[in-house]
Each structure stands twice: as C-alpha cells, then as structure tokens.
Design brief:
Elements: E1 7-16, E2 23-31, H1 33-36, E3 42-48, E4 57-58, E5 66-67, E6 93-97, E7 104-108, E8 111-116, E9 129-137, E10 161-164, E11 168-169, E12 175-176, E13 194-198, E14 207-211
Antiparallel strand pairs: 1-2, 1-9, 2-3, 3-4, 5-8, 6-7, 7-8, 10-14, 11-12, 13-14
Amino acid sequence: MTENNQSSMAHVWVENGPLESTNKITAGWHVFPHLYGDSKTHFYATWTKDNYKKTGCYNVQCPGFVQIDRKNHLGSYFPTTSIYGGPIQEVLISITQDPKTKNWWIAAGNTNIGYYPAALFSNLGSADTAGWGGRTQANLGRASPPMGSGHFPDGNSIHSGYFRSPSVQDNSREEFTPNPIITKSFTDNSDCYTIDYYEPKVGFAGAVEFGGPGGANCGD
C-alpha cells in the first residue's frame, strides 16, 4: 500500500433489499492507512441499512456494533500474514444470525466478538444474498492497490487470496456449501482483478480465490 487514501480488503457479507435501501453487514480484513495510520492488516466489519447513503461505518466509528469479547475487537490487527508461496495464515470469519433475537453476530476464529442488533436494520430479518470476495479503493484518477496477494487466482491457494470451505446456513439452520448453479462471480475489471469459485468435490470442500495486481487503469 503506497498511499494513505488507498485500501484493500477481503470480506464475507450478507445483505437483503433493493439497491437503494440495501441492508448489509460485512466482516473480514483490510489494509487502510487513512483509517488506522499504518499499513498493517486489520480485522474489520461494517453495516448499513440504506446502501451506505446515510447509515453505516467501519468498526465502531458510529453507534451500532455491540462489543462482547474483552480481548478481541474490531480494528485489531493480525500480527502475521500470509506470504506468496507460503507459509499461509488463516482465520475463520463468520456472520451468523441468532434465531431468537435476530441479532447478527460477528466471529473470528471460534470467538464471538460482538453483534449488530436486529433493530439497526429495516429488511435484514434474513439475508437473500451471501458473498465472499475482495475490494479496493483509491482516489479518482489514482492507481488502484493490489488485492489479496497481488496475484491472480490460478487454482493454487498459496498464490492468491482465498476463502476455503465457504458455507451458508438456511432457514432451518442447516449448513451447506453453495451450489455452483446458484452462485455467480463478478469483477469490474478483469485486467486488474479476478475471482474464481472452485466447486466442492470428494476430499475438497470448495474455495473462492480472488485477487490481482491492481494498477493505473482499473476504473473508478
């Protein structure tokens, strides 16, 4: 990351609602010098109930997130990160809805960090979309930073950013791996970043690989 106004992130998310009033929660990691004053990799989450028009923020910059764990918190940084070709560092990140309260819990590893109260949202009683991927941002006309490892996916998880064993829960609380028939991938500039979904097979629970080098012509 070469400029304070750049950021690069990887996250899971859940959402519901039309574009102009999307309710959404994301959780993952990002590098964001302007927010933290450093180039470390930080654990983060965001929320919105109107597609970030007037509501929502990173971490606890605005009211909403209820911190529960006393040791781990949004905004903390990971002391070690993966290296291209290995060794690889992994963290389990999840967004889970409590079936009784309808609050949305954010967890890292096996630890519940805290939750977003159901009352924050207008149409996130359940999610109609769940996703995994990466995102970058930079000032208009400036180069876009690398995403993931800075390399395109090639089917080898030690070369690119990835989500191993992606899964979702249905209304009955049963967990399953997304069927390729009901999934879709998206990138707004395949010259800068790509994403691939490798479907489950015997002995392999599936993976989403993503990333790329960024550059000067990645769009707005």
